[in-house]
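Protein Record: Sequence and Backbone Structure Tokens
======================================================
Tokens: labelled as protein backbone structure tokens, with as many entries as the chain has residues.
Task: work out the structure tokens from the sequence, keeping to the layout shown below.
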Amino acid sequence: MSDQTGNLTFQQGVKDCIPTLLGYISIGIAAGVAGIAANLSILEVTLLAIFVYAGAAQFIICAMLLTNSTTLAIIVTTFIVNFRHFLLGATLAPHFQKDSMPKNIGISLLVTDESFGVAAMKLAKKEPIYASWMNGLNITAYLVWIASCALGALVGKLIPNPAVFGLDFALTAMFVALFVFQLQSVPKSKLRHISFLILYMLIFMIGLSFIVSTNVAVVLSTLIVATIGVVTDR
């Protein structure tokens, strides 16, 4: 592939990212506000966006900071929440076999649920994807996310109580929406299986909370139920 084609595919990746930017901006601003509410500085919120780059994990980190969770608990929880990115990167890797290892690592580091979804849609249509296109998609999302979190931190300095505007509910709303969208793509034959897994999650989480802290109970319950889900999936 020529340099000209590579440049065009990078530009196309930027264009293909545009429809997803509203989600990045809204959640990023909310994450920035949540960071300020967790007593982080604007610089710390921005650094969190740069090095963690995960909406759910950033919200969880802020919540755990407010509850004075241990550093180990925060690290373990963040690792578990972000573990799916290993799977996303591994799924895309076969399509970039002609590219160098550094390029593949760069793609995997910046891939998100949204950018993976855009790539998956192209693959479902039997359209080829290239590293340059994927970089355009990922880098655009990454820069917009950082800017949105920084903007949210600035806004958070001006809003003494984010709950008044419902911004504290942003993560919950996002997960509910993602869960509903996910259920729409699940075959009806598996809904019963998922219902039982949700029930198991509640039982384990409540039971373990009597033995260990709530944060650890959530982590352990997630690991146990995820294992049950994989073993019992048909």
About this structure: The longest helix spans residues 131-158. The CA atoms of residues 73 and 216 lie 7 Å apart. The radius of gyration is 19 Å. The chain has a mean pLDDT of 84.
